[in-house]
């Protein structure tokens, strides 16, 4: 018996442990965005509920510059700290954030089928928020890795956030090129002897287009219905420059779950 499945039900092991334990390598890589994909809100704007009167001063709100979201959030976190907002209050607020319809069922299904799926998040949120939200819902063990902007609380109780990495992609925000993250992850897995037969990319936003354009014909792009990524992919088709991968539009995690069930049966 595969050690991954020993005993009653599935026992979660990180990917490296599963492979070392002699389990078959998962065939499929699932890549999720987080905001407006896994959760049905923007985690960075949800935290504003902690601010006095649940709003930011106009000067702060208007200080955002395109492509420099992380720097903007640093100023927001500094304002919250100056306003006396502390870690426990922020955590209570963040763990009330709603999951997107069907996403809890989908993550539960993935967690029970880790011998088929490796699963990662690539997000422009931050490590603290994603960690809080996933752990509160008991989904943290479904993920093999989370790639997002590193955040931590300072000795004085202020939340600080840094850029995830540096890159040279002109299409992406300064702090994060999701294509670079995905390609480096896939390369790392190849060096460990893991070659995915299919990459399934689930997202909603403009910053998900760059990694989607790197997908191959056997892969699947899953843009959320009515959101920016779906509109951009549609526009590319109209311009006779379609993405190479299959495209499956979704509005509920249940639709994604149904397709994953079909993939397992193939």
Automatic annotation (TrEMBL):
InterPro entries: HAD-like_sf (IPR036412), HAD_hydro_PyrdxlP_Pase-like (IPR006384), HAD_sf (IPR023214), Pase_PHOSPHO-typ (IPR016965)
Keyword Hydrolase attached: yes
Sequence positions that bind substrate: 44, 124
SUPFAM superfamilies according to UniProt: HAD-like (SSF56784)
Source domain of life: Eukaryota
Active site per database record: 33, 35
Binding site for Mg(2+): 33, 35, 204
Cofactors required: Mg(2+)
GO molecular function: metal ion binding; phosphatase activity
Record keyword Magnesium present: yes
Family: Belongs to the HAD-like hydrolase superfamily. PHOSPHO family.
Annotated protein name in UniProt: Phosphatase, orphan 2
High-level lineage: Eukaryota, Metazoa, Chordata, Craniata, Vertebrata
């Amino acid at each position: 018996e595969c050690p991954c499945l020993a005993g009653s039900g599935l026992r979660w092991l990180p990917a490296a442990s599963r492979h070392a334990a002699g389990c078959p390598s998962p065939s499929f890589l699932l890549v999720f965005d987080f905001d407006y994909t896994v959760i049905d809100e923007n985690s960075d704007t949800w935290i504003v509920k902690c601010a006095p009167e649940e709003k930011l001063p106009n000067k702060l709100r208007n200080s955002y510059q395109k492509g420099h979201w992380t720097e903007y959030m640093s100023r927001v976190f500094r304002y919250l700290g100056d306003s006396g907002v502390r870690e426990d209050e922020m955590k209570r607020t963040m763990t009330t954030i709603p999951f997107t319809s069907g996403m809890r069922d989908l993550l539960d299904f993935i967690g029970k089928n880790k011998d088929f799926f490796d699963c990662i998040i690539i997000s422009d949120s931050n490590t603290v928020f994603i960690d809080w939200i996933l752990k509160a819902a008991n989904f943290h063990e479904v993920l093999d890795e989370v790639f997002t902007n590193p955040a931590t609380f300072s000795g004085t109780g202020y939340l600080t956030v840094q850029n995830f990495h540096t890159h040279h992609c002109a299409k992406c925000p300064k702090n994060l090129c999701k294509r670079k993250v995905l390609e480096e992850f896939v390369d790392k897995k190849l060096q460990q002897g893991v070659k995915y037969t299919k990459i399934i990319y689930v997202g909603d936003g403009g910053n998900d287009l760059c990694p989607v354009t790197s997908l191959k014909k056997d892969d699947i792009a899953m843009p959320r219905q009515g959101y920016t990524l779906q509109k951009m992919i549609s526009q590319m088709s109209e311009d006779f420059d379609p993405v190479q991968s299959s495209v499956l539009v979704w509005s509920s995690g249940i639709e994604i779950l149904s397709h994953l069930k079909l993939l397992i049966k193939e």
